[in-house]
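User: Good morning. I'm curious how adenosine-3',5'-cyclic-monophosphate would be positioned relative to this chain. Could you predict the structure with it bound?
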Amino acid sequence: MIKPEAMAAGHAGKILDMILQSGFRLVSLKYTQLSAQEAGKFYEVHKERPFYGELVGYMASGPVLAAILEKDNAVQDFRALIGATDPSEAAEGTIRKRFAESKAKNAVHGSDSDENAAIEGAFFFTGREQY
Ligand code: CMP
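Assistant: Good morning! Here's the predicted structure, ligand included:
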């Protein structure tokens, strides 16, 4: 998912290009905005964290670009492409190094396992929206 601050800054095209140039295939793509309730559900695993309220407000603050991506070793390779959660710790050439504003407003989200990728994909897309 490309997050609200990266969308508002006009980085979506460049970020998507980096993803496709890195060998990911688009299975699904959607321009949408989460309600606070939906953002809260998406990030439910972080409910007990001190930043949960801030995270939910931010993720519902503007449109996002949600995608399902396919590639061998996709979860690991995508996390390598986006870089560390905190852009100050992200490697050169990663998406977060180039485009993230802060640890909270960090430009993109990537699933942390195949299991969560399936859950998060189903959150945004019906079966007929996956090709
Ligand atoms: P993401 O990879 O989408 O997963 C959880 C999100 O919570 C993370 O990116 C950040 O947007 C946010 N986050 C993680 N740690 C912090 C923090 N310490 N303060 C604020 N937001 C955070």
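The radius of gyration is 14 Å. DSSP finds seven helices and two strands in the chain.
Let me know if you'd like a different ligand tried.
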